[in-house]
Amino acid sequence: MKVLQRASASRYGLATAYLLAAALLAAAPLFTSDFRLNLLAKFLAFAIAAVGLDLLWGYTGILSLGHGVFFGLGGYAMAMHLKLQASGGKLPDFMEWSGLSKLPWFWTLFQSFGMSVILGIAIPSLVALFLGYFTFRNRIRGVYFTILTQALVVISVTLITGQQAFTGGTNGITGYGELFGYSLAAPEMKIALYYVTAAVLVVVLLLSRFLVKSRFGKVLRAVRDGENRVRFLGYNPAKFQMAVFVLSAAFSGIAGMLFVLHVGIISPSMMGIVPSIEMVLWVAIGGRGTLIGAALGALLMNGAKSVFSETYPEIWLFFMGALFIVTTVFLPRGIVGLVADGWHRLRLLGRRRKGVPEHERSRYSAV
Amino acid sequence: MREIKSKGKRHVIVTGLLAAVSLALVLGGCAQNSPAASPSASPASGASSSESGSEIKVGILHSLSGTMAISEVSVKDAEMMAIEEINAKGGVLGKKLVPVTEDGASDWPTFAEKARKLLSEDKVATVFGGWTSSSRKAMLPVFEELNGLLWYPVQYEGLESSPNIFYTGATTNQQIVPAVDWLLENRGKKVYLLGSDYVFPRTANKIIKAQLEAKGGELAGEEYTPLGHTDYTTIISKIMAAKPDIVFNTLNGDSNVAFFKQLKDAGISSADLTTLSVSVAEEEIRGIGADVLAGHLAAWNYYQTTDTPENKAFVEAYKGKYGADRVTADPIEAGYAAVYLWAAAVEKAGSTDVDKVKEAAKELEWAAPEGKVKIDGETQHLYKTVRIAEVQADGQFKELWNSGEPVKPDPYLKSYTWAAGLSSGS
């Protein structure tokens, strides 16, 4: 009886924390400048990608170092639409430089906003499905899969950089400022886009939470902890792995689209090896297998990056490096792990005198 | 049990580290706000807020980390030196210039983010920054949106003229076009085009091809390699098979090092095959090696050896401040000039207001280290003297030819009949 009460008490605590976070998100435009709000919106977009990655890595045990590609593909879809709008019927400027005289056929698909959004989700999903189909079905996993995702990054970056006439090359796609004829620079538009991003993040978090709690989520964790056992029990792990890989790619695509709306540029450097690894670091630092930790990790790491680079422009990379090392060495379970440990220890201190069974105490020490 | 115990110890370390990091954050935040009255968070505050009391804030936005840092840090150094010199002489409008430095990190979206930060958070009066065309293209929408002012110090491919950017490097008709003319007259008609695959070489070569066709030159071949490409053995054999009189080289960065070293390894000297480069300056010669480059050509508006009294003083000051082993080069000089030109325009306008400064900057003249420069009011580019030079064994350039007087900038090549159609729609 007592245990039950305690559990519900901590659940109330958690609910309050979530409500508080939601309230903070909702009120942010009131107390931040335009610039900071824009940054925060960008971080929220990153958080969406991080949650997707956490589903894949934290819950299913598949480490992808290629999510920058899915992020970039979503970003390019949105950027292509915006560029077409900005060019107003004429050929986008970089095609002109590169000697094209006609809009390539696949660009015409991005004339419509709806179609661009659909493609911004569908293209990353299809690429993930393609890669997942040939790897998971052939039981390629662990580090071999991770290496393949890195190969995907190299291929995509080389392809996009090389095809300057169609993709804008190293420059990427930039030089647009309007969505539906409204300026992206207008403060109202920025606030609206911020709320859209925050709402998408909340939906993504709730959906992920629902999935994780469901039977589907249980199988995912089972695949992580014992793929062969799952297979012997009659499930096909490949199907679950593919499903979660596609879902997380879709989340990254959505994040990429929102990123472009906030930042106004997408370039191959955003889908490179470094950003792809950074995404994994957000999850690791926030605490993998916790969803909210992934989102927090993305917010904190990017916040720290901005603060460090603004304050110490010449040596900020050393601070970031130190931060990575400290968290990986001392916080193997990330920030959320630290908070959970702290909370647990506090309760232990309170209860030790009353004598709490041993199994209760060690509950949190399992990773 | 054991695990919990050891964790207790670890917990102390973690808390300590976290405390240290957060302290650093807080201190950083304070340090950031202390030099001037902290900028108001309201986006509606006026343009004059960059002048707070006795100070004027100016932004410096170059890559201080990443692949471009090696080039851009030198330009940042020259800009900082100009700011110090101006401050030593009493500042601008009697106020001290306070530089706010940001790191573009060789990443184009970061350039856009930091430009936005400098303009809307720090409310700087102007920004000096950028090197690659990609970084400029990324910053351009931000400067136009917030009506900021950017001084861009590097030669580029032209076909651009933003009302919010001053271009103090050369455009195509001040570097590439006269260089090709000179080559056709002095070195032969058969030209091989070699470049990195991005907007500058592509555009430059498009122009050169039109020019060759109009002036009776011959295209011996055209080759692009990805940025950062380092294997040129196949391309070198291709070039040798084509037997060109000259290779017009628009390679960038590390590729130049690889190309020239492999050229030398293949036993091909500058007498066998001469190249003219538009992205190889004194700084790059240091990296590639003077022995490898001796005899090859370059086209710029400024060399460390350019013979003007202003340049003597500039080189001396730069070496005095940053070390005798440092060299000056075209973009470094253009960055230095940008600061002085902006300061002169502000003095003339009596204000740092962007629109007033732009108005005052029209037709402004200044005796730069490269010789006399003048701001063209229409395009916001500079009149610059074109110089073609040959690399000497000591790593310095010997000037072979110059245009005699500053050439009027023409970023869209409107005054060249053969170039009609190149810039259509832009």
UniProtKB/TrEMBL annotation, chain A:
Keywords: Cell membrane, Membrane, Transmembrane, Transmembrane helix. One of its GO terms (cellular component) is plasma membrane. InterPro entries: ABC_transp_permease, ABC_transptr_urea_perm_UrtC, LivM-like. It is found in: Cell membrane. NCBIfam families: urea_trans_UrtC. GO terms for molecular function: branched-chain amino acid transmembrane transporter activity. It comes from Paenibacillus herberti. It is a multi-pass membrane protein. This is Urea ABC transporter permease subunit UrtC. It comes from the Bacteria.
TrEMBL record, chain B:
PROSITE patterns: PROKAR_LIPOPROTEIN. PANTHER family: ALIPHATIC AMIDASE EXPRESSION-REGULATING PROTEIN, PTHR47628. Signal peptide: none annotated. It comes from the Bacteria. This is Urea ABC transporter substrate-binding protein. CDD domains: PBP1_FmdD-like (cd06355). InterPro entries: ABC_urea-bd_UrtA (IPR017777), Leu_Ile_Val-bd (IPR000709), Peripla_BP_I (IPR028082). GO terms for biological process: amino acid transport. The lineage of its organism: Bacteria, Bacillati, Bacillota, Bacilli, Bacillales. Gene3D superfamilies: 3.40.50.2300.
